C-alpha cells in the first residue's frame, strides 16, 4: 500500500488508491473504476468513477519524460504550473476552465472536475460539428485571462512576482524548438514532411530567407516579451466543448509571454478545421468556421477595448493613442503566431488530426499546401491582419493560388 509521500509514476490501481486516500467523497467507496484516457503529448490522465454514486473525477500526473518522445526529459513540477494557472484562470474567467479539487506537489498530480460529458473540440471538428457559442466563450476567456494579467491592470510588483512564479523554461524550450525553429529548416530529424509536398516545403519554408527573418523576430519576441500569463498551447485539443459550454484545459505550457501567441493558436487551429472542411466539400461546416474566424477577431477587439476601459490601472495606459498602439501590436502578433502554428503542425513533429486524417492523400497534400500558403502570408505581412475579414481574404487568396 503506497503512502504517496514520495513521487512515483502511478498506474490505474495506484490512482484508485490515491483518490480513495485524498478525496473525501471517495474514501468509503467500494466500487471504483479507473481508466487512462490521456491522448496528449506530455502527461498521464485518468478518469476515476465511483460506480455506486456515479461521481467521477479526473487525475492528471506529470511523468519525467514527455509521452510524445523520451527525448524530452522534463521536470514533474510542470503540473504545479498547470494547476496554478487553472486556479488563476478560474478567478479571471469563471466557468471557462475546470474546477480544481486538489494539487499535490509531491506526486506532481492534480485532481479536477470531470469534463467527460463534453467533447474535445478537435475531435468534434474532425466530425464537422459546429458550436454557435464558441466565439463568445473563447473571446471572454482570452480577454479576461490576458488583459487582467498584464501591466495594464496589475500592480507592476505583483505582476513581476507572477512572472517569477510561472517561469517555465523546459516547456518553453519545447515551443522554441518545435514552433519557432525546426519547421523552417531542413536539418532537424524531427520534421516530418508528407511525401508529395517535399518541394513545396523546400521552396516556401526551408529556402525562404525573407520568412526566416520574420520568424527570427517572432522567436525573440516570444523569448523576451512577458506581456501576460498565456496558456501557451491553446489549440482545439485543449478545449472541451458542447453546444452550451466551453472549457479550456491543459495550460502546462503557461508562462508570461505575448498575448498574440494564444489568440494566434486559436485562429490557426480553426484554419486547420477550415482546410478539412474544404477537403470534404462540407459547405455548411466551412462557412461556420469562416464566420467563427471573423467573429473571434472582431469580438476580441471589441471586448478587449471595453475591458481596458473598465480595468486599466496604469496611468499612462489610459492614453487613448497608447491603447490603440497596444491593441494593434497584439493583433499583429496574433497573425504572426498563427502563421507559426500553421507551419509547425504541417511540417513539424506534433501534427493535427484535422489534416492527417484527410483522405485520399491528394486531398491531404492540397490541404497542407493551403495551410502553408496562409502561414507564409501571416508571417510575412502580420500588420495586414487587424480584422477577421482580412483572415478570410487570406484563405480565399490561398485557395485561388492552389487552384491555378
UniProtKB/TrEMBL annotation:
The keyword Transferase applies. The keyword Acyltransferase does not apply. Residues 33-279 form the Aminoglycoside phosphotransferase domain. One of its GO terms (biological process) is methionine biosynthetic process. Pfam families: APH (PF01636). Keywords: ATP-binding, Kinase, Nucleotide-binding, Transferase. InterPro entries: Aminoglycoside_PTrfase, Kinase-like_dom_sf, Methylthioribose_kinase. It comes from the Bacteria. Its EC number is 2.7.1.100. GO terms for molecular function: ATP binding; S-methyl-5-thioribose kinase activity. Homodimer. Belongs to the methylthioribose kinase family. This is S-methyl-5-thioribose kinase. It comes from Paenisporosarcina quisquiliarum. The lineage of its organism: Bacteria, Bacillati, Bacillota, Bacilli, Bacillales.
Amino acid at each position: 500500500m503506497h503512502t504517496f509521500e514520495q513521487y512515483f509514476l502511478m498506474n490505474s490501481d495506484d490512482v484508485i488508491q490515491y483518490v480513495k486516500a485524498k478525496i473525501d467523497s471517495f474514501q468509503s467507496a467500494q466500487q471504483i473504476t479507473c481508466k487512462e484516457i490521456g491522448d496528449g503529448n506530455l502527461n498521464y490522465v485518468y478518469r476515476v468513477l465511483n460506480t455506486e454514486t456515479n461521481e467521477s473525477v479526473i487525475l492528471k500526473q506529470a511523468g519525467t519524460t514527455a509521452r510524445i518522445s523520451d527525448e524530452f526529459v522534463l521536470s514533474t513540477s510542470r503540473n504545479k504550473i498547470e494547476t496554478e494557472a487553472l486556479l488563476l484562470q478560474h478567478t479571471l474567467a469563471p466557468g471557462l476552465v475546470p474546477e480544481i479539487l486538489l494539487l499535490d506537489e509531491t506526486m506532481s498530480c492534480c485532481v479536477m472536475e470531470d469534463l467527460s460529458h463534453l467533447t474535445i473540440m478537435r475531435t468534434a471538428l474532425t466530425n464537422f460539428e459546429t458550436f454557435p457559442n464558441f466565439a463568445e466563450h473563447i473571446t471572454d476567456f482570452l480577454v479576461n485571462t490576458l488583459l487582467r494579467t498584464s501591466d495594464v491592470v496589475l500592480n507592476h510588483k505583483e505582476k513581476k512576482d507572477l512572472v517569477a512564479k510561472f517561469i517555465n523554461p523546459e516547456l518553453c524550450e519545447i515551443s522554441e524548438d518545435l514552433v519557432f525553429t525546426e519547421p523552417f529548416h531542413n536539418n532537424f530529424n524531427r520534421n516530418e514532411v508528407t511525401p508529395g509536398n517535399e518541394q513545396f516545403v523546400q521552396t516556401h519554408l526551408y529556402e525562404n530567407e525573407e520568412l526566416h527573418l520574420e520568424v527570427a523576430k517572432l522567436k525573440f519576441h516570444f523569448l523576451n516579451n512577458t506581456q501576460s500569463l498565456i496558456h501557451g498551447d491553446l489549440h482545439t485539443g485543449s478545449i472541451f466543448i458542447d453546444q452550451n459550454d466551453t472549457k479550456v484545459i491543459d495550460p502546462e505550457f503557461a508562462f508570461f509571454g505575448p498575448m498574440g501567441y494564444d489568440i494566434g493558436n486559436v485562429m490557426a487551429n480553426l484554419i486547420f478545421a477550415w482546410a478539412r472542411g474544404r477537403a470534404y466539400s462540407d459547405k455548411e461546416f466551412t462557412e461556420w468556421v469562416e464566420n467563427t474566424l471573423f467573429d473571434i477577431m472582431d469580438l476580441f477587439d471589441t471586448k478587449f477595448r471595453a475591458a481596458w476601459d473598465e480595468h486599466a490601472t496604469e496611468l499612462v495606459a489610459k492614453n487613448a493613442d497608447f491603447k490603440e498602439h497596444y491593441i494593434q501590436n497584439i493583433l499583429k502578433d496574433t497573425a504572426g503566431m498563427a502563421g507559426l502554428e500553421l507551419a509547425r503542425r504541417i511540417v513539424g513533429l506534433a501534427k493535427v488530426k484535422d489534416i492527417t486524417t484527410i483522405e485520399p492523400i491528394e486531398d491531404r497534400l492540397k490541404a497542407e499546401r493551403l495551410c502553408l500558403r496562409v502561414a507564409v502570408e501571416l508571417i510575412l505581412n502580420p500588420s495586414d491582419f487587424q480584422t477577421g475579414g482580412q483572415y478570410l481574404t487570406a484563405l480565399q487568396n490561398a485557395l485561388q493560388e492552389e487552384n491555378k
